Amino acid sequence: MNSQNSLNEIEKFCRDEYAGLYRYAWALLGNKDDAQETVQESFLRFHQMWRQGAIREHDRALLFRLARNVAIDLQRRARTAQHSTIDNVIAFPRTPEELLLEKETEHYTAQALDQLSKKEQECLALRLGGLSYGEIAGVLELSPNSIGPMMARALRRFRQKYEEILETKDRETRFTRRR
Amino acid sequence: MKKFWKPKTGKPASPDDGELLAFLDGELRPPRQAEIRQLLESDWNLRVRLDELERDVAAYVSATQPPASTDAPTFDDIWRKVETRSTVDQKSEEAPANIQVLWRERMPTWMLQPLPLRIALSLCLALLFTAGLAFWLLRSNQLHKVSAEELVQLATQAEALSLQRVGDPVIYRRIQLKRIGAAESVQWESWKDARPSGQFRQRIADQRGGRMLRELDANQPALLTELETIFRANQFDAERPLSAASFAAWRKQLNQSTDTLTEQKESWRLTTSVAAPRTINTIIAASLLVRKADWHALSLQLKVQGEHETQEYELSELAYDVLPLQALTVFADLAPTPSASATPATAPPLVAATASPSLLPLSSPLPTAAALLEAEVAAFFALHQLQADLGEQIEVLREGNRQVVVRGLVEQAERKQKLIEALRAIPLIAPQILTIEEAARNLKPTLSERVSEATIASEPAVRATPQENVFQQRLEQYFLHRGMDRNRASQQVAALSNTIVAEARGALSEAWALRRLAERFGGGQVAESSPAAQQQLTAIMSDQVTRLKARQRNLQTQLEPLLTSLTVAPSTVMMTSGATPKERALQLFKSVEQFYSLTNSLFAGAGSATGSAESSARQMLAALAQMESTLRHLEP
């Protein structure tokens, strides 16, 4: 059994990784609740594994791998946008314009991300979470050398798609106003 | 990233987007990082590309950034929940896993070891278990098994304990003595006062009948004499040969011996063989059978060195009990000598022990069925010898498979004394004979009724009182025709009637005795009894048949001429004979009874004489003929 010192140590590790993990979860899932649940569940699983002695040292790649698995589970269960919107409305009262904008942004982002493969999305999200190329390669079980080109390609396509969506939307808006 | 196909020039290779992104992310090695930085300073296009990449990244980061309005949970909030859930999970894991935890804590540290070590440990445990099991089995077997020494010791202790049950214990034993290979067997009863130098009394029953024995009795069976000699020669207690203590004492004084212990279903058999030089009468081997349940010695087999060959003897216990001395009268008529063995040879002859049921063991072990049967036959024989089986109110009954009671009423005290004396010498017999006076004075009403019945029964059932009937008139005419005057003829008829009635009654008594005997012993039980019992039974039957034949002849001699003159046609009776002695005896009884009934009605006027004189005469002749025929078949 681990000592109290070890408990404190694991807490510190999780605290350090919290922001990146949350970003990663958000990038993957696009809503606060799922991101929060993913982070929480990842910490919990990490904590259990550590308590059972399955892990001996701070393994960031493992933590993100756990988060990835949780996120995949959540996505499978199709618990994404609707909950987050409602919860966000309840939790943080905003103006209808703000809500619409947020909703549109989420929608465009989701559309742009759909152009990417799952691996590319995950790769970008992991990088957003703060993982190094080596760690990303570990999580995704890829070669570290392939991470840079894959990410660059994914970023380019995402941006192109995202801007394309925005331009289209902009054109539609202008056209509507003109009418 | 290096491109190995590019010719090496002085200028570093231009990075692709992937490498450029890695440069941005600081993922390249420092030399390559420096090279790209240098390239960026000199390469405009590269700077544009880098700028584009940064905008790609910014677009992605911006698009995937949580909205500014979203209040992201703090780490502490998340961690608190994690800790709470972790605690709950831990408890819920622990609850069902208690067994696992216990298992893990108590036993299986070795199970958590690497596989080879686990296999080795498993093998060690298996070996230990097997060894333990073997040890346990061996030990449990040992618990049930005994050594020869232990067996003797346990049997001796059990014997000593049984003596403590009563004060002044007397060991009663009935033993069957047998020489193996010979038909001869003797039943030997002994009463041994268990105190040091205690009195000893013995009784023997062989082909010559049962009798008490005294010291140096000439009537002692040869088999018993032989055994006494053997016991003396081997320092074996002759007064208690079946005693475990005697066996232990004999075994102890042996110089060289071998013990063989054999387990049987309900007993142990210890055979001690003597290796020492063999002289005549030396016990070569003695085998003691001890009951497992109570360590009681049941039988002793002896192999004895004879003059030219070995002899084998068997002493089997038939009955055993420990009785208080005060309850016994068997020693009452002994001279107050300290020990029977110390009685001089010239001591006055021992008289039979006074009769008392307490002479017999009152508690277990029960006598065998064969012993009871023999006692019963002996009782019948004794009664027969005293002619007490001919109509006296005496019955022979078994009492709870323990003993045989001879119960009855007699007219005179002398008769009672005679009967008791005859019966008390028989083992397992409890005589309960009373005079009519005693019964009438002391006994309960039910018995009083029997007394009155006995009194009535003792009276002649009918008196021959010639009555004026057709048959008697014909009898008178018969005598008148032979030249007698009327008065003389009447006297002759009365005398004849009395004789015939008396003979008929006597025949009926004999027939009753025979019937009782046939009913009791006619089922083939006697075949299993001793030759002595069989002889006694044959003797009784022979006597009864002989007497009946005499009576039948007498009746026939007196009646045949008379009856023949009364009837025109001789009777044609279907002579039948039973298949078994019992059936024949019953048949005989039936014909005797019929004859008696006719006699009563015709000669004594006890009943109504039915039919004509001719018819009655024919019936009597037929009954006589049937009696004669059946008696012929009953001749032993």
Keywords:
A: 179 residues; 8 helices; 0% strand; B: 636 residues; alpha+beta; 9-stranded antiparallel beta sheet; 3-stranded mixed beta sheet; elongated
Describe the structure.
Chain A is mainly alpha-helical. Chain A has helices at 4-29, 32-51, 60-76, 81-91, 96-114, 118-128, 133-140, 144-178. Mean pLDDT of chain A is 78; it is low at 79-92. With 636 residues, chain B is of the alpha+beta class. A nine-stranded antiparallel β-sheet of chain B has the order 4-3-2-1-9-8-7-6-5, with helices on one face. Mean pLDDT of chain B is 75; it is low at 334-364 and 443-467. The chains are: A mainly alpha (179), B alpha+beta (636). Chains A and B meet through helix 1, helix 2, helix 5, helix 6 and helix 8 of A and helix 1, helix 3 and helix 4 of B.
How would a crystallographer describe the biggest sheet of chain A? none
What is the CA-atom radius of gyration of chain B, in angstroms?
Answer: 54 Å
How would you write the strand order of the largest sheet of chain B? Answer: 4-3-2-1-9-8-7-6-5
* Count of distinct strands of chain A: 0
Amino- and carboxy-terminal Cα gap of chain A = 71 Å
Helix content of chain A: over 70%
In summary, what is this structure?
Chain A has 179 residues and is an all-alpha fold. Chain A contains eight helices and no strands.
Give the SSE map:
The complex is a heterodimer of chains A (179) and B (636).
Chain A: H1 4-29, H2 32-51, H3 60-76, H4 81-91, H5 96-114, H6 118-128, H7 133-140, H8 144-178
Chain B: H1 17-24, H2 30-42, H3 44-64, H4 75-94, H5 98-106, H6 115-144, H7 148-163, E1 169-179, E2 185-193, E3 200-206, E4 209-213, H8 222-233, H9 244-252, E5 257-263, E6 267-274, E7 283-291, E8 297-305, E9 310-324, H10 369-385, E10 393-399, E11 403-410, H11 413-424, E12 429-435, H12 436-442, H13 445-458, H14 470-481, H15 486-521, H16 531-566, H17 581-604, H18 613-634
Parallel strand pairs in B: 11-12
Antiparallel strand pairs in B: 1-2, 1-9, 2-3, 3-4, 5-6, 6-7, 7-8, 8-9, 10-11
